[in-house]
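[Solved] Which block belongs to which protein?

Original post:
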Amino acid sequence: MSGWWRSGLCQPDRVVHRSVSGDLESHRGNHTMRRAPVLVVGAAAAIGLALTISPAQAHGGHKPPPPPTPTTLAEGLLTPLSLAVGADGTSYVTQNFAGTLNRVPRRGGAPTELYASGGAEVGGVSVKGRTVYFAETGFTGDPATNGFTGIKSIDSRGKVRVLADTGKYEEKYNPNADVEYGARDISDECLAQVPTGPEFPPVKYTGDINPHPYATLPAAHGTVFVADAGANTIQRISARGKITTLALLPPIPATVTPEIAAQFGFPECVVGLTYWGDPVPTDLEWGPDGWIYVTLLPGGLEAPGSGAVYKVHPWTGKFKKVASGFTSSTNLAVDRKGNIYVSELFGGRIAVLKKGAKTPSTFVEALMPAAVELSPKGLYATTGALIGAPTGPEPPTDPPGGMVVKYPLPKWHGHHHR
């Protein structure tokens, strides 16, 4: 993927850009992470857009039902991009750019720091019993500065354990190395006319080495599943730390429009071609049918409504599309009835796909919702996730504005099943 889900940029010393559809890209010094998004604008402008556009505008002007009123549990968080809730109502939230894992009391209050990486991104939090799992991404693309990238756990006594080094696994195997992304059918003559350079997205490319574990999901017998947003894969980690690729997800097609071509000075011959974007998995949750449900968004050309939910069989790796029509789908929660809640980071809402529905609807309007989690007490979410995030080499002008909130559940909701 071309964005921050892929690049592992979530560190404050990197310059951040976003496409109008929600993709982010990083630059550190003279080194540029691959696959710059199309329609790139500054992150500050993108955040301003998210602050002003209403979800009704983003989703066809339909007026949503009266929204539930949230309870604020924590605030002042820097990029709270992942969230988990324990059986006792304690919530765990990562501040990805800050590289920390924090605990929030069930009644709310000041977060307690459980873990700090010292610089690398921390995200992908999940909890099972008294053990909290999380991902750490120190991959930079430069062997001289690469740090640990993989999965860790922390127990109730604060002991941290390394479960697997998924970065080394990606470097060794690179499961999507032979997958062709971009404009597959572009002619050599047309390709020769396409401008090149770090400021331009690649028009045609194959999967490179780019580990970015973005979500974790614990299972029975010490198994942990991982959504790697850089490798475009779902991985399975055994209790002994053995990593296998469970599923390599399919590329997501989009059509190159005249507007996109003009934005980057692409020649006219590119217009109308199908661009096969990276299939970027951003979260994992158990469904009531025993399958793993996955949010997916496209790297490269992310048009509004191009995000999707898939489900993956936990042992065979077989996958099926459940629904599409989501915008910047970064996280999900599934209840025992099969209702699916999805955070749309730049869509201005938490969407819900009700059991049996073919298209998502609005559960609640929210500013930059990054993560959602269900418990019998309500729907937990992080909002304002990029307020105060660095948008360039200069210090941010706004203080961190991320929050953990809790919404009451609707009457038709089925309680969380795990």
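(Second protein starts here: sequence line, then its structure tokens.)
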Amino acid sequence: MTGFGIATTSADGYVSPDVLARAVEERGFEWLLFDDHSYFPVDTPDEIDAEFRARLPLIRDLPVVLAYALSATQRLVVGSGVALLPQRDVLHTAKAVATLATLSHDRVVLGVGVGWNLDEVRNHGVDPSTRGAVLDEQLAALGLLWGEEVAEFHGKHVDFGPVVARPRPAVPIPLHIGGPSRAAQSRAVRVGEGWLPYAGTSTPEDVRRARDWFAEQGRADLPVTVSGVPGDQKLAVEYRGAGAGRVLFHLDPGPEDEVVRELDRLAGLAEHLR
């Protein structure tokens, strides 16, 4: 049976993440994912949607948003969709995510990606052409930091240790790999518990082809969660038919009353599709 959730942005001046998360949980959704941007480069290409462009500088800090959302809920799975890990320090990330997982009784999912805004990546001191390699090393390092008594990692882009890192999650934190590229899909096959494509860049046919490719790689059971799906019944059915096990409806940030009305509509749609 297809699962349903919400993918959204937590932005300054709009509904707070704790209020939003409580409303999402009350309406029977299973997952709530937030996106991640640290700031907005002024020179971002003009083809970016004007409304999205205006909202980007307002995005709140992801770990703080997740903490608020988790503290307000009991059952809801909360996570990143996606965290731009190459722009973040891996040691701080390991501690933040593990802390969230232990305090929430393992209700955290970590969706990760390399990022699309090359200036944003570059201004964090990362060569955009290496961001995939950086992410690969970070994911390997996270596994050690979360799983070993004493962890160390020596790579081209990530280098530390030996270190003791606490807290350590009681169960593995689910890693879902975002991105439409074959490189992202390969990463999901190698180290992911799922592939997390965005509806704006991956069509139902793209999902179908990816599922076929996963089967060829021996990962026919790799879960697919499509994020940012418009609240349209036909499209949700198409993604489900293509093999998506979970559909996360897109929800624009807004005032609480507007967001709640849209959540009511999306909850009705999800109930109809179950």
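Accepted answer:
You had them paired correctly. Confirming on the second one: The CA atoms of residues 197 and 226 lie 5 Å apart.
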